[in-house]
Design a protein that fits this description.
Elements (H helix, E strand, L loop, with lengths): L11 E5 L7 E2 L4 H5 L3 E5 L3 E2 L7 E3 L2 H11 L5 H4 L2 H8 L1
Parallel strand pairs: 1-3, 2-4, 3-5
Length: about 90
């Protein structure tokens, strides 16, 4: 993916986990930061965010806004869950 910063386009990685997923450790994504990526994480719990730059936690509103704006270009592996996703946010 490409970051949403219009004036500073960079590669980006997004990791999304559901309510029952275990915590995400920001340190596990360090290789992407080292390669110049911005990393966006969504999970019930994200640890070690303060230890690495260019890793950001995505909130519920961010996730819904991103999905609505870009769903036409997202892969079917993501959009196939739309019925479940929209019923949770209603």
């Amino acid at each position: 993916m490409i970051s949403r910063e219009i004036d500073n386009l960079r590669k980006a990685v997004v990791q999304v986990k559901g309510k029952k997923a275990k915590e995400l450790d920001a340190i596990e994504f360090k290789q992407y930061v080292d390669e110049g990526y911005l990393v966006y994480l969504y999970a019930p719990r994200v640890i070690n965010l303060d230890k690495i730059e260019n890793i950001f936690r995505i909130g519920n509103d961010d996730l819904v806004d991103f999905y609505e704006k870009y769903k036409l270009i997202l892969p079917a592996s993501i959009t196939q869950w739309e019925d479940l996703f929209t019923s949770v946010s209603d």
